[in-house]
């Protein structure tokens, strides 16, 4: 059985123009071209198109897709790998959705009671954020001025102040995760506006220059407990935050 290019476009949601482009670059040739000039596809072509669309969803470029499909790799093995990656992505998005949903529910509860509802057990999202004695000693040695600024700032904070700050930081991490999941580039103005919120939050405790702010972003990636806090929100968030901070440091702090 064969399907016309119009049939394939209708079934797959891919435009006829895109299918013709795939043919022109050798990615998805039709089974044959009729006397009327229309392209026709058989089952093998539909399966190949499915693999193309799966890899496109995973962010693979057309050149790389063609290399994979032309390598004669077992189709079932390829599909199993796609399936594994899709399940991992689904789990990541479900975790993020639960996190955002829990935050929305608790904030809405506070709105309904006409008061500021505190997020229950914020340590679940921000566990281990405080520096260990070893980390604090390292910071004090490397940046003594900044360490003193931070110490004075935290001494003036009450327990409620600290909890509010943690809620604000957690909300900021969630917003950054939403940008990351949406595929927003780190240099996008909206992302950089969110980084500005982060920078101003940091400045409550100490004022980093461009080099120090970049170093802080790298610390989020390298230090296991900081990285774990970001990974609880979404996988890859620590790197996304670091890269966005690097752009901010280069454009706003240099």
CATH class (first level) name of the largest domain? Mainly Alpha
- The beta-strand count equals 3
Helical fraction: over 70%
CATH level-two architecture of the largest domain: Orthogonal Bundle
Based on helices, strands and strand pairing, what is the structural class? mainly alpha
Distance from N terminus to C terminus (CA atoms, Å) equals 63 Å
Q: Considering the protein shown, what is the CATH homologous superfamily of the largest domain?
A: Antibiotic binding domain of TipA-like multidrug resistance regulators
Question: Quick one: biggest sheet?
Answer: 3 strands, antiparallel
Major beta sheet, strand line-up? 1-3-2
**Poorly predicted residue ranges:** 115-137
**Nearest-integer average pLDDT:** 77
What is the succession of H and E elements?
EHHEEHHHHHHHHHHH
Compute the number of helices.
13
Summarize the structure in words.
The protein is mainly α. It folds into 2 domains: 3-72, Multidrug-efflux Transporter Regulator, Chain: A, Domain 2 (Orthogonal Bundle), CATH 1.10.1660.10; 123-253, Antibiotic binding domain of TipA-like multidrug resistance regulators (Globin-like), CATH 1.10.490. It is 71% helix and 3% strand. Strands 1-3-2 form a 3-stranded antiparallel sheet. The longest helix has 38 residues, at 75-112. The model is unreliable at 115-137 (pLDDT under 50).
What can be said about this structure in brief?
Helix content is 71%, strand content 3%. By secondary structure, it is an all-alpha fold. This is MerR family transcriptional regulator.
